[in-house]
């Protein structure tokens, strides 16, 4: 009888140990599920708060986005072709000297700022200068950024040394044209 009791004690100890492990695992599972539920709840609350903040920002509403799209479309339509500078030189004629340019690449388009000068223009040159500026301003991709003049002489008799212009030429970059095709 003692022997049967010993084996029953082993079975009871094994059963109690198994029960304790199972209870521990169950408690651990509930703890992990509780933490996960708390994290999900916090994430949902943060998402709701971010959504409320985003809706509060009027810069992201449909009306503002539509206006931004329209401005982008107008800007793209105003960009010149790669031959824009050559066309501008045709408008200007042979009296203008190109003094240099600087180029800035912006990804989808590039901006070149050209400095040109006409030395010693006469009174007869002024209608051509005015017409050239008008033609340049109407051309897509070209903007006359500034006109400068320098004169010399006395208060009684002055002469115009030069007329200079800064032209901004904006064209689609070649990489952007490859992607748009």
Describe this structure in words.
With 181 residues, the chain is of the alpha+beta class. The protein folds into two domains: 55 residues; 101 residues, 2-Layer Sandwich (Alpha-Beta Plaits). The chain is built from five helices and four strands, in the order αααββαββα. The protein has a four-stranded antiparallel β-sheet with strand order 1-2-4-3. The chain starts with a helix and ends with a helix. The relative contact order is 0.11. The mean pLDDT is 80.
Count of individual beta strands: 4
Compute the number of helices: 5
Determine the oligomeric state from the structure.
single chain
- CATH top level of the largest domain is Alpha Beta
Instruction: Determine the structural class based on helices, strands and strand pairing.
Output: alpha+beta
Residue windows where pLDDT falls under 50 for at least 5 positions: none
Any idea what the CATH superfamily of the largest domain is called?
Ribosomal protein S6/Translation elongation factor EF1B
Number of domains: 2
SSE run: HHHEEHEEH
Rg, Å, rounded: 39 Å
Helix-strand layout with pairing:
Blueprint: H1 2-56, H2 62-78, H3 84-92, E1 96-105, E2 109-119, H4 126-138, E3 142-153, E4 158-172, H5 174-180
Antiparallel strand pairs: 1-2, 2-4, 3-4
